[in-house]
Each structure stands twice: as C-alpha cells, then as structure tokens.
Target: SET domain-containing protein
Amino acid sequence: MVSRNEEKLNSLIKSYLKKYDCCISGRSQDLWCIKQSPLGGFGIFATQDIEPGELIFLDHPVLLGPRYLNDLPDNCTTCYCKVNIKKCNNCGLLVCESCSISENHLKECNLLQKLKNGHDLLEKNRQLTKCLTPLRSLLLDKEDLKVVASLKSHKGSQHGYEVHTLTEDLKLQFSSEEKEFLYFVCTVLDANAYEVSIESCDSNRGLYPLGSLSNHRCFPNVFHVFDEKHRMVVRASVFIPKNTELFNSYTILLWGTITRITHLKNTKHFICKCDRCKDPSEFGTYLSSVKCKKCPGNLLPINPLQNSNWQCDTCTSVEPLKEVYRTLSLVGSVLRGFNNEFELIHRFLTKKLITLVPDSNQVAVELKKKIIWILGYEQGYLLHELPLELLLLKRQFCKDILDILIKLKRGKCKLRGLLCYELYLCTEELKLRQNFDQCDSKIFEDDSKANLLEAIDILKYDSSVSDSLRQKINENQ
Ligand SMILES: [Zn+2]
Ligand SMILES: [Zn+2]
Ligand SMILES: [Zn+2]
Ligand SMILES: [Zn+2]
Model:
C-alpha cells in the first residue's frame, strides 16, 4: 500500500528527475519507488528483481558546491576546472575565463551584489566560497525549492554554521525569511549531502534528492559514482530481490564498528543496528579487533552494540574495554602521522602494527591502501621501476582488501573497481618480466582480463577515473 504522502513524494521526485534528464532510456517502468521504511521515515525500494550492476536510477544535484572547508583547493566555483582561474572583480569568487561571463556565475554575482550591501567581499572570498552551497539555494526555482523542502533535516547547534559565517563574518544582509530558510538548507545539507569528486577533487558536496532518501546500512546493496554531468549514477552491488529496501552507506565501508558507530552518532544522529554492527567479527573480517596479549588469538567485543568487555576468540580470556580502546586509539593516531612515505609505512605495518592488531584491522587496511597507491604512482616507485617483491606486495594487498570486500557482502562498488584495475596493472607488468610456461600464462591471462573487465564495468560512468582507465573504458565500448 502506498499512502497519500508517499504518492506525493514519488511524483515530486519523479517529475524533478524528468526535468533534469535523469530518466533511464529503454525502460518502461522505474526499478524503484519511495515507501515508508521499517527503519522509520522514507526509504527506496526495488519494484522488481534487480541484477548486480544494473542501473537503478540517475539523480541530479539540486544543490552542488564546495564543502565547508578551510583549505579548499583553487577551482572555478562554477565549472570546478583549474584552468585560467581568477578572482571575479565584483564578487571575489574564483572563476575560470569562460565561466566569468556565464549565466550561472552572473546570477550568483548579482545575488552577491545585492546581499553584500556595500561591504567588500574580495578579501574574504575563501570564507564566501565555503558557504556557497547553501547560498545557492536562494537562486532555486519554485519546483526545486519544493524538492529541498521535502527532505529531512537535522536539528542541533552544530548545524547551520554557514549562516553565522555569512552574516557575522561576511556581513551579508538577508531578510529574516531568507536567513531562516538558509539555516534550514544547512541542516538539510548536513543530513543528506554526498561528497562529490569532480576533477579528482573531493572537496565538493551535492544534495541529491532521490539519493538522499536511501537509508544507511553498513553493508549496502547499491553503489554510486558521479558522471561528467555531476549526476549520481546508482547501481546494484548485488542481486536485489523485488520489494527489498535499497541501502547506501553513510560511512567509510572499511572502518570498524566502533569508528562507524561514533561517526554515525556524531554526524547523522542515529545508532546503526544492522547485522554487521551486531556481529563481533563483522562478518569474519576482524576490521576492528586487536590481538590477544596471552595467545595468538584476536579479541572481539562480547556485545558490539554495548560498551561490553572484549574476549579472545581462542583462549577466551577477557580484556576490559578501556584497554582495547587504548590500543585502538594508539594505532589510529599513528595513522594520521604518515604521508606518502613507503618505507616508513611498510616498516610500521610489518614490524609494529601486526604485533598489536590482526592484519585485517581497519588501520592495517588503511595503510595497505596507501601502499597500493604509492607503488606504481609516486616518484621512484613507478610500476616499471618496482622490484619484483614490491610488485608482488602491491598485488597481495589488492587481493587482501578485495577479500575483505567479499566478506562484507559488498559486491560491486567503486573501491572494488579501482582495486581490480590495480590488480590488472600489476599482472600486466608481471607478464612483461617473467617467462611462464603455457599453462600458467593462460591462467594469468584470464585473471588479468577478468579484472580489467570488472574495473571497466564498475567505473564506466565515473567521471573521476584516471586517464589510462578512461582510455580502456572507451576502447571497450
Ligand atoms: Zn569555470
Ligand atoms: Zn562575480
Ligand atoms: Zn551497521
Ligand atoms: Zn587469547
């Protein structure tokens, strides 16, 4: 049964998507509908069986712009490029040459002329830039405003700091309705905005009306990338039976339960109780466990959703939570200290870290990820320069993380695509160096091709992929 409210919301979102060219061609019926979720509030549900990798919906950002960050990179605030950027003489925003006379910038520029009320914004353009996303809501048309108004928002003093910056630091003048509305938009952004990578830079946020209606689960069944029109492309990670709710993840997938729960509580104000959160070993990944001090076993929380003690899975000895936290925060703090220094990271990972945590702990995984993207990319470590042992190390780390993704039931996702591509690159480099007998070489060849095809399939709509992968994608179309 679909209630009146659900009906209204479905038709509001559907006409919004139609307006912005987000209908999927060749399909008579949508694969999704919005319904009341057992988790509370609305959710998105499959209207028929959906195959892994199938395109479920496209979504257009009703608001898109910089995140509220102090160290934003110098990008054009309109098209996000980095070429020929200069400060606009009127409003101070950074724009590229062609955008400086574009309709989109001129609309913003005029709005700012009106709001600045004689104050000079040129020296404060950084502060202005980080508040630009909510400010853009003042330029939305009536229909889009309705869409924004239909989304859920967060209450609380930690939200709406952009309004403070706009009024107190930048001295912009708003009517009281505008100010109230801006505050509401900030709370909607905090509740729903996605991090959007544009031009390989992650410092943008986008409000995707349909995307924001999907609920969270720590093992999502859909994944998304952003295409060159900044649309969100949402596809199935795994097989999704008809009437199943579609889940996204609001946290980093490879974080352990403690980190995820803390993040969700602080930023999204809810406690996740999904099957992964309830499982002490997180589906056998041991992402948050630490080593037992008495035997080679691993400590796991007795009850992960409560502040329980931890117990060894081998000798059953019990360790107080405080002790476990001490170890976890110690290894976590080391992580933040590393730059892209291969030797340092590798030594820490193999000599120190494995004495404290299993090698699938989230910190170990994070360091392995760093190493995967140093080897083959950083100066002195380009793929053709790597000694065989480092090439094999990179390959092994890719496989380790892919294994964890499989245990997490993740199916297709962006990280899987990226790792499959790195594995393909490693195998191709190995093929150049080694003489295999015929049988090995056949297995190698199949393996390599499968990885490339998987990477291409997962990332074909992603506008942020490397040039070399883009070329492979184009060749395969
Ligand atoms: Zn531009
Ligand atoms: Zn301007
Ligand atoms: Zn969960
Ligand atoms: Zn033990």
